[in-house]
Amino acid sequence: MNPRTFRHAAAIGTLSATALVISGCGSSVTSEASETDADAATTVTLENCDREVVVEGAPEAAVGMHPAQTELMLRLGLADRLAGQAQAAAQALPDDVASLAADVPVIGEVMPPSREDLLAVEPDFVYSPTTYEFTAEQGFASIDQLEQADATVYVATGGCAERRMTGEVTDLFDDLENLGEIFGVQDEAADLVVQSRAQLDEVAAAIEDVDPLRVAQVYVEGTTLQAIGAGIEYDILGLAGADNVYGPEDPMFADFFAATITPESLAAEEPDALVFSAYDAEHEAATREYLTTTFPDLPAVTEDRLIAVSSSDVFPGTLGNITIVRDIAEQLYPDAF
Q1: Cβ atoms of residues 59 and 125 within 8 Å
Q2: Full-model pTM
Q3: pLDDT for 42-63, tens place per residue?
Q4: What is the pLDDT, as a whole number, of residue 69?
Q5: Predicted pLDDT of residue 327
Q6: Residue 257 has what pLDDT?
Q7: Which domains are present in the chain?
Q8: Which domain of life is it from (predicted)?
Q9: Which of 119, 155, 258, 274 is the most buried (most CB within 10 A)?
Q10: Beta strand 214-221 with 152-155: parallel, antiparallel or unpaired?
Q11: pLDDT at site 41
Q12: Within 13 Å of residue 84, how many CA atoms lie on the same side as its CB?
């Protein structure tokens, strides 16, 4: 994640929001239709980030506040329901759906859109990866302001602030179930869940008998070294078959999923592999250069196990959470695939 993105992540760790859960993680959903009018729009009521959200009828002017959320709605067949796509330059849409968004207005390149730009497209549904996108102090439209403009706000389950430390890859499945109910595309949502579970199951079967490698996940900006030890990132490594060097039980991750560490402390752990996030090719190259020159004798370096992942793919509520589980597992255990 770049400096803005890392501040983004830090902000969602301190904003006051709580994800209420179903089956241990996610949001609860109920839906009902009028008994007196079979054609009446379905009302969906759910709990999301400690808010009761009521959606009267399927939204017609939705905004994806990050390409990951835009992609999900496109894959659910909702291209004609999109009124805008935000942070569009933060991550390219996959080739197979990019054309579907060609006519969707872009409102914000890398940063979330301003309050004025978001409200200008008159959204009735705003779907965000985190609560950060609604920080009024940053000039963004707050949740209250959007609700006053008759827009429903939905935050990815793993992006609710108190969920950030304990988020799991499978939080995405709760989001898909909720979107299916909200937009009346339950079958499409269920298909995506089935496909995603199958991908995770395939990885689990492939690595079932491997000897787990000790893996540290880090983030480098300049010469500042951060360790990642909680949240969705931690779960991703576990699903990829890694023995995490850093974990939520470590005191330095008591309040936040990332912590600044010294090069000496990382070297002492002697990880077999290093996973790091990068926000573009230049950042990836700079991080590789830092790691190889700072830790020339580290097993992760000598065994050529420096594994880059896109910072966008570790955002909550993205299909990238699923795909990078396999990407990491394949690079850790190539003989298993």
Answers
A1: yes
A2: 0.85
A3: 899 999 988 999 999 999 999 9
A4: 96
A5: 98
A6: 92
A7: 3-200 (3.40.50.1980), 209-336 (3.40.50.1980)
A8: Bacteria
A9: 155
A10: unpaired
A11: 58
A12: 23
From residue 301, alpha-carbon distances to 294, 296, 298, 330 in Å are: 10, 6, 5, 17
45 SS3 class: strand
Mean pLDDT of all residues in 248-272 = 96
Q: Are 239 and 202 in contact (CB under 8 A)?
A: no
Q: What is the pLDDT of residue 108?
A: 85
Residue whose C-alpha is closest to residue 323's, from 312, 336, 313: 313
Half-sphere exposure of 268 (CA within 13 A, CB side): 6
Q: Which two tokens stand for residue 27?
A: 């949001």
- The beta-strand segments (E) located in the chain are 29-32, 43-48, 51-56, 62-64, 82-85, 125-128, 152-155, 214-221, 224-228, 243-244, 258-260, 273-278, 306-310
Q: 331 with 203: CB under 8 angstroms?
A: no
β-bridge partners, 243:
214
φ, ψ dihedrals at 99, nearest 5° = -65, -25
Bridge partner list, 260: 226
Tokens of 49: 């980030």
Give the whole-angstrom CA distance, residue 178 versus residue 273: 36
Q: What is the C-alpha to C-alpha distance for residues 250 and 248, in angstroms, rounded to an integer?
A: 5
Spatial distance between the Cα atoms of 29 and 46, rounded to a whole number of angstroms: 4
pLDDT in tens, 108-152: 888 999 999 999 999 999 999 999 999 999 999 999 999 999 999
pLDDT in tens, 171-225: 999 999 999 999 999 999 999 999 999 999 999 999 999 999 999 999 999 999 9
Report d(CA 264, CA 227) in Å as an integer: 13
State the DSSP H helix or E strand holding residue 295, giving kind and residue range, or none if neither: none
Burial of 240 (0-12, 13-18, 19+ CB in 10 A): buried
Q: Which residues lie below 8 Å from residue 229, measured CB to CB, with a gap of 6+?
A: 217, 244, 246, 247, 248, 250, 252, 253, 257, 258, 259
Q: Which tokens sit at 242?
A: 């890694």
